[in-house]
Write a structure and sequence with these properties.
By secondary structure, the chain is mainly alpha-helical. 55% of the residues lie in helices and 0% in strands. The radius of gyration is 17 Å and the shape is elongated.
Length: 124
């Protein structure tokens, strides 16, 4: 895909709502509402943990971060990229502990946890 821009306007079928939008509690396009109701449903968490899309994205993000070398520096880089802030000493310690305790693909799993966090999902 050459166009990597976000859009404000997009086509939404009133008869055939995209299942991904429905998963994230997309409002009924046949009704009007003065304000969007903020909700979370259990399926959202399951999507972040089990979706092939999320697994692929975390693997790509792990490559982008380049997790070779000092884990603390990589964790700091990750927090700046995902949250726009520095990681706290406690977050660095917890991240380092997580990475050391997981032998099979530790970085994608760690990134999957961060991408499913409330801070990332509701950033704003």
């Amino acid at each position: 895909v050459e166009n990597k821009r976000r859009t404000v306007y997009g086509f939404v079928s009133r008869k055939d709502l995209d299942p991904l939008l429905a998963l994230f509690d997309f409002p009924n396009p046949n009704a009007t509402s003065e304000q969007r109701i903020v909700t979370t449903v259990p399926l959202q968490g399951l999507f972040f943990l089990n979706s092939p899309l999320m697994v692929n994205q975390t693997e790509a993000l792990a490559e982008r971060i380049g997790s070779a070398g000092d884990p603390a520096a990589s964790i700091q880089k990750t927090y700046r990229l995902l949250f726009g802030r520095a990681a706290t000493p406690q977050e660095i310690a917890l991240g380092t502990e997580f990475l050391k305790s997981n032998k099979d693909q530790p970085w994608p799993k760690y990134l999957q946890v961060l991408l499913s966090s409330n801070e990332f999902i509701f950033i704003g």
